[in-house]
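Reopening this one. Same input as before:
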Amino acid sequence: QVQLVESGGGLVQAGGSLRLSCAASGRTFSSGAMGWFRQAPGKEREFVGRISWSGGITYYADSAKGRFTISRDNAKNTVYLQMNSLKPEDTAVYYCAVDTGRPRLGVPSFDGRRYDYWGQGTQVTVSS
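Same output, byte for byte:
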């Protein structure tokens, strides 16, 4: 069992920065890839980015490339989402999730169905 708790959300002006944290408990954290997703009101959940278990591989949705950076500290059981140059369209609830690696044939890694455990989310609001 893994529990994930996001923090660091808040209200920021456009162009500003925030760093979200996702603290995890459970033995599978360090062996699992981690993903960040977001969901804006009235919209479907959207993939933001993903980091491998070692932290050596990351990739991002086009909307996040060049502005967002995911990192992780396995010693602290924490994954981070550094968000720079924020825009009003980044306003959403942000979730972290862990992919324990269970086989899911045909499900890509940007699909939420790949992930086994989810945090409760943290609100990010970007004002114009």
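So the earlier flakiness isn't reproducible anymore. For the record, The chain has no helices and eleven strands.
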